[in-house]
Design brief:
The chain has about 375 residues and is α/β, with parallel strands linked by helices. About 40% of the residues lie in helices and about 15% in strands. It has helices at about 15-25, 35-40, 60-70, 70-75, 90-100, 110-120, 165-175, 200-205, 215-220, 250-255, 255-275, 275-290, 300-305, 315-330, 345-350, and strands at about 50-55, 80-85, 105, 125-135, 135-140, 155, 190, 210-215, 225-230, 240-250, 310. The strands form two sheets. A six-stranded mixed β-sheet has the order 2-1-3-10-4-11, sandwiched between helices. A five-stranded mixed β-sheet has the order 7-6-8-5-9, sandwiched between helices. Helix 11 (about 255-275) packs across helix 12 (about 275-290). The chain is globular and about 60 Å long.
Length: about 375
């Protein structure tokens, strides 16, 4: 994602105040029930003919990959058609959401935060989590043997201001080292490099390591790199949000039944992934082959898969922490994230399935 410009965020009181009324009129927060199995079985359309879903061809988006590949999402939608678009970066997905080209998307925390703050709270809501973890610092072991050895080295992140870039800048700061966030110059040279070319950059020696998500991290390991740090080790309970599910506020207000169907599909997909990890890994790889033309090698996907946790919980407290890290790095003005979450549809589904509800860390709609 691109760097966040200084922003003064304002809470859109009217939207936050009226949206719950709109949602309540559509059945949220009530005991209204629909015969979901009957809708799916009969192929009946919901309130929209089509729902347009965006996601990345990354393992950290495996809920979408598997849900699409196995037909779980489409089954829950019944006669409403699932139309998929894939993206390589968060900013382009946010642009698609803003341009009404997609309705729902799987996306990382930093683009979700920036999308919300730049629109002054008007364009999106986070409605569920999808995945935690799956981010590692991989280095050339011939040049870097300890974390202290990173000083003076060239380390890649995927993009200026993206989720991993912010995490690495925060880690550098906590080491007491200095780096200019915009240029990447300082005690460590932070080189913003597209994940597609990072393995080539590592192979050529133009970078000494990278702070990257899976499967890029495991691709570097297959090139001789060594995992020096798993980002999960820096977080409480070793959990932090890496992928959320977002929806345009307009689509959420107009088609809550479709949103619920997608969320039923995502929760059932995560349940299936966690119950069938080997089959799920194969399914995700089959979808990656379809989308990119090439599956991941067994060595890469076998190393990458265990580091990702698939969860419906958006781990909201970690989103606030990531926003604070971006502010600390000088990439974002202190944002007002009140209202960024609407977890009522998800909690309705979880409660109906006898599962624990999830929290919004005080950042939900009122």
């Amino acid at each position: 994602m691109s760097a966040a410009r200084p922003l003064t965020t304002l809470r859109n009181v009217a939207v936050i105040a009226t949206l719950p009324l709109l949602l309540a009129s559509c059945g949220y927060g009530s005991e209204t029930k629909t015969d979901e199995k009957k809708v799916a079985a009969e192929g009946a359309k919901l309130s929209a003919d089509t729902v347009r879903l965006g996601y990345f061809p990354n393992l950290t988006h495996a809920t979408a990959l598997v849900g699409d590949q196995e037909g779980i999402l489409q089954k829950e939608l019944g006669g409403t058609q699932l139309k998929v678009s894939t993206f390589n970066a968060g900013p382009s997905e946010i642009e698609a959401l803003n341009a009404d080209s997609i309705d729902i998307g799987f996306i990382g925390p930093s683009p979700a935060i920036n999308g919300y703050t730049k629109s002054k709270g008007k364009n999106l809501r986070i409605i569920a989590g999808s995945a935690s973890g799956g981010v590692k610092l991989v280095v050339n072991p011939a040049k870097i043997k300890t974390l202290d050895d990173l000083k003076g080295k060239r380390i890649a992140t995927p993009q200026l201001g993206n989720t991993q870039d912010v995490a690495f800048l925060n880690w550098i700061s906590e080491k007491g080292w200095k780096v200019d966030a915009q240029s990447g110059k300082g005690d460590v040279s932070v080189l913003r490099t597209d994940n597609k070319v990072t393995p080539d950059a590592y192979r050529s020696g133009s970078i000494d390591g990278a702070w990257v998500p899976e499967p890029t991290a495991s691709k570097l390991v297959s090139e001789g790199g060594k995992v020096l740090l798993d980002e999960a080790s820096l977080w409480p309970d070793k959990k932090f949000v890496i992928t959320n599910i977002i929806v345009s506020q307009k689509f959420l207000a107009e088609h809550p039944d479709v949103v619920e169907a997608v969320l039923r599909g995502s929760t059932k997909t995560n349940e299936w992934i966690n119950a069938n990890p080997d089959k799920a890994k194969e399914s995700a790889n089959a979808k990656l082959k379809e989308l990119t033309g090439k599956p991941l090698g067994a060595k890469v996907i076998d190393a990458a898969w265990p580091s990702i946790q698939f969860t419906d919980d958006p781990l909201a407290a970690t989103l606030q922490a990531q926003a604070d890290h971006a502010v600390k790095a000088g990439l974002l003005k202190q944002p007002d994230l009140a209202g960024i979450y609407d977890l009522r549809p998800l909690n309705k589904i979880l409660k109906g399935a006898g599962k624990p509800e999830v929290a919004d860390a005080g950042l939900g709609t009122k």
